[in-house]
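User: I'm curious whether this sequence folds into something compact or stays loose and floppy. Could you predict its structure so I can see for myself?
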Amino acid sequence: MDPKNRYLEPEIHEFLESRMVFVGGPRQVGKTTLCLSFLGSQSRTQTAYLNWDLPFSKKIIKSGYLPAEPILLFDEIHKFKNWRNLLKGYFDQRKDIQKFLVTGSARLDHYRKGGDSLLGRYRYLRLHPFSVSELNLQTKNDLKELLRFGGFPEPFLKGNEKFWKLWIQERLHRIVYDDIRDLENLREYSRIEVLAETLASKIGSPLSIQSLAEDLEVNFRTAENWVQILEKVYYCFRILPLGAPKIRAVKKEKKLYLWDWSECESEGARFENFVASHLLKYCHHLEDTQGEKMELRFLRDTNRREIDFVVLKKNKPLFAVECKTGDKQVSPHLKYFKDRTNIPFFYQVHMGDSDFLADGKIRVLPFVKFAREVGLV
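Assistant: Here's the prediction. I'll summarize afterward.
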């Protein structure tokens, strides 16, 4: 297990040959640390790292007299109003002699979509928390540590309960009062913080925005807007149902998960969120590095039969995944949907030891082995 080498390093090296590389993702997931590793020595880091929040760096960026380093790292530059045109000019003038890495908060992802001045000049890569495959975990004990402390580098590497609890509090506060305040002009920041704290209890079930609205004493539209804002700042994500043609599938309800699965209280919800995060990382990696059209969905019919996840590629299902903390009984829902859908492979993953094939297309196996065999990152 070597947490120093992040899974996106090969793609960053490849894309830097012809493009700028933007690295996005949740707060404190390790974006700046990853990008700093490309600058080389400590002396080069001191000159090639340009953080818009630092007055000296800001002056250099605006002057146009950039350091003569082979790779430059711009951090938080999206806080400058004209940052897209500025980067466009730098890249067009210097692309043959310098390479450009760009990272920042969630606003980087939001604002890069606001115009096409950078079109064809960059690749955007989303950095996810540590995963089973990235850390090359082999044992159940290793898996339990990742489940307990989450995949964000600081709390996972510390492995300390007190540090983890304080880190969660600080991260949520900074997401609400720094990231969201930068992104949206709102007045109800404290109520969004309450909403965020509430979402940990909603994992694994269809999310009712109306119920949230009633609890928060706001209208439906406001509650939906607040959840969307929390998605923008990489606090949570939602997945849609799969409308399979031969079943009476639900079509509107969404399920919600957190980027930090360690915040889930119950063991079952935490494990389901853990698997959801791994599958989302797999989908995002194929989208960002291979250009594939990927989707993560779930399958549920009107009789409440459900499979937790279905991974789609080019609108066609690749495989379905059901999560169980135990490793003995096969979910009857897997058998039901196996006979009524065109999903080619069904997996039931767990934290135990059993590995067997049931009903031809249903494989029951430990999640560590599933991650390795499917090729999760």
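Summary: The mean pLDDT is 93. The chain is about 45% helix and 20% strand.
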